[in-house]
Structure formats: C-alpha cells, structure tokens
Recover the amino acids of this structure.
C-alpha cells in the first residue's frame, strides 16, 4: 500500500519537476551541450512574421520553404533542462546593459534570433534599430537593453594600403576597443571567412610580426589570430564586469565529407535532423584550435559549444529558401529563423543563469 502510494506520488510529481528545472543549482555541473533534439509542439519560440525586422535571408517560411517540422525541435541536455525562455525576465535582468555579438554573419544569425525571441514576446514594446557602419544596435527602450552586432569577420585588423589589404595577425581592436569594453556580455565568433579564396577573400597580404606573406595556411593563420584575440581580451576586458563567450564553430552541411550519414552535395530537401548517437567522427580542425586557444587563457572565456548539436541539424539551413536567385543559391551555412540559433541563445541564457 505504502509502495503504491509512493509510486502514485512519483507519477504525479514527475511532471512538476519540469517546473523547477532550469534553475541555477540544477544547471551547475550540467553538460549543456551533451543531449538531444526533442520534438516539442510548443516550438518554435516565435513566428518570423512577428519579427518585422528579420533579415529576409533567414526568413525561410516567408521565402517559400514548404516544410515546417524543422521548427519543432528543442535542445534537451541529458542531465538537466534548459531554463524556459522568458523575455520579461531577460529584459529585467539586463536593464541598462549591453550585450554584444562580434563576428561574421553567423553572429548576425544569433543576434537576429535573440532580437526576434525577445521582441515577439512583447510585440508592443518600443525599440530602436540603428545601423552605423558595421555596427547594428537594437535597443528595447523601456528597459534600455541594447543588443549589438559588430560585424567583424576575422577579429584581427585589416589595414588598407595603396598596394592592397593587409591582414594583420598581431593587431586587434583598432576601432572596436571601446565598444567591446563597455559591454556586460560579449559573444565573439570567427571562422568561416578564414576559408575564403579568390573574390571572397577579404585580404591581399598577411603580416605576422614583421614578416609579410602573400598567403598562409589558413588554420595556422586562424590560430595566430585567435592568440592575438586571447591576449587582448586577457589584458583589456574587465572580467568582473563582462562575461565573455566564444560561439563555437558553426558547421555547414554543404559537403558530405563532414557528415557521415549524409551524402549529397547540398542541404536541399533535408527535412529531418540526424538522430541517434553523437557524431562519431573527429572534431573539426578549427574546433580543436579554438578549444586549445580558449583553454590556454588565464581568464575564463566560456565556449558556447554548439558545434556538435548543430551538426545534427542538416535540416535547418535555408538551402534555396535563403536568398532565392541571389549570390548564394544553396545556403548550407546560415540557419533559418526561427531555428537552431534560438537554441544557441537558450544555451547562452543557461550559461548566464548559472553564472
Ligand atoms: C506564422 O504566422 C502566419 C501569419 O499569421 C501564418 O500564416 C503562418 O502559418 C505561421 N507560421 C507558422 C510556421 O506557424
Ligand atoms: C542605458 O544603458 C547604457 C549602457 O548600455 C548606459 O550607459 C546608459 O546610461 C543607460 N541610459 C539610461 C537613461 O539609464
Ligand atoms: C565541446 O563538445 C565536444 C563534443 O562535440 C567535446 O568533445 C568537447 O570536449 C567540448 N569542449 C569543451 C571545451 O567542453
């Protein structure tokens, strides 16, 4: 009798554990990045039509994507639950504060996701969206919360000389130091532009110390630049005021060799994630370098370790529903919104919650 009462209590109480989950104590010590994608009918967190300022290349539904199952997955860590997203709590917590994303268009993807997540929950809140050169600032006026995107694909500086553009592997933050220092949360990112060659390569020469090169092994250059970044951050960011993150390498699904279960030459017509055990292959080379650099720092930079969980989402890229007919015919690098970057932001919020 006592046993069955206990059993009934367990059955009744278990569903309520979800209510208390996602709290600071539970998140401490939880590996947020080890988990799985679960179908959740309450997702997505917003509808892109509620996000009037969304960049059209992320608005896959508006661009005619016919399937919508990809919108319905929630990231579930194995040993804890992510905090339930609350725009109200977030805006209260960051009143009078600034959150800055520094990086390439993958940072744009995540910044845009967060602005949509927050604004769709309080659609009547007044906001200001300003764009000055490479910096976009989205401010929730009532709470004075600013979400800033600083476009900076390589993090280190590029000098424009009469004879060409010089990528300076040892120089950083020529223009951005003040912006970075005045923030409460900094989320850096850099990788994809290190791979570009030809017309899309953003430099003509590379300098390392006093040596000038025409080009360099891209992984070597990437590590040198990250070391420059790490030293600057160590010396110039006040870690008692600012929490520093690095967005892990965002995987693409253009190329079959990065993804065992997948053997096309595009991500078109993919409508389901890859389920099953974690990806068996080795980590991406850039991932190894990034972790090595972050691990060598004397101050604690948090890795938003989104690589593997995103590798499962071959279904979540814009493919042909990004920029139809424009320069990217098949976009397997960015992510549809709503979508995977919303989960990155739920993870960021979990990291910020556990302190
Ligand atoms: C988003 O909202 C629009 C307009 O209300 C609606 O037509 C569309 O079906 C919604 N999309 C999803 C995926 O729910
Ligand atoms: C708004 O927040 C910024 C920091 O992001 C701060 O410098 C400024 O003083 C705040 N404005 C008001 C009116 O509190
Ligand atoms: C990030 O996740 C990968 C699995 O994809 C794991 O091997 C690695 O140790 C994690 N890195 C950190 C710093 O936790």
């Amino acid at each position: 009798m006592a046993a069955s009462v206990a059993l009934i209590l367990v059955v009744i109480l278990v569903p309520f554990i979800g209510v208390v989950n996602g709290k600071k104590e539970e998140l401490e010590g939880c590996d947020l990045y080890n988990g799985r994608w679960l179908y959740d009918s309450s997702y997505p967190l917003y509808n892109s039509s509620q996000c009037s300022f969304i960049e059209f290349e992320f608005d896959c539904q508006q661009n005619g994507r016919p399937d919508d199952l990809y919108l319905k997955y929630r990231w579930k860590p194995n040993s804890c639950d992510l905090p339930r997203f609350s725009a109200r709590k977030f805006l209260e917590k960051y009143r009078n504060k600034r959150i800055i994303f520094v990086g390439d268009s993958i940072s744009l993807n995540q910044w845009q996701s967060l602005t949509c997540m927050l604004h769709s929950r309080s659609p009547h809140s007044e906001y200001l969206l300003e764009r000055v050169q490479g910096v976009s600032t989205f401010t929730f006026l009532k709470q004075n919360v600013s979400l800033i995107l600083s476009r900076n694909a390589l993090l280190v500086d590029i000098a424009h000389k009469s004879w060409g553009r010089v990528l300076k592997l040892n120089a950083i933050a020529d223009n951005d130091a003040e912006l970075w220092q005045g923030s409460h949360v900094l989320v850096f990112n850099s990788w994809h532009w290190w791979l570009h060659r030809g017309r899309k390569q953003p430099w003509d020469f590379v300098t390392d110390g006093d040596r000038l090169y025409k080009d360099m092994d891209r992984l070597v250059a990437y590590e040198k630049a990250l070391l420059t970044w790490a030293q600057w951050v160590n010396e110039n960011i006040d870690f008692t005021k600012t929490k520093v993150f690095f967005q892990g390498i965002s995987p693409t699904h253009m190329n079959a060799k990065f993804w065992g279960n997948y053997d096309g030459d595009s991500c078109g017509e993919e409508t389901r994630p890859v389920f099953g055990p974690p990806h068996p292959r080795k980590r991406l080379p850039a991932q190894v370098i990034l972790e090595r650099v972050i691990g060598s720092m004397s101050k604690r930079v948090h890795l938003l370790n989104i690589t593997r969980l995103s590798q499962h989402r071959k279904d979540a890229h814009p493919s042909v529903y990004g920029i139809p007919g424009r320069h990217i015919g098949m976009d397997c690098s960015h992510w549809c919104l709503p979508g995977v970057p919303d989960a990155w932001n739920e993870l960021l919020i979990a990291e910020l919650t556990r302190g």
The chain has nine helices and 13 strands. Residues 47, 49, 61, 68, 71 surround 2-acetamido-2-deoxy-beta-D-glucopyranose (ligand 1) (CB under 6 Å).
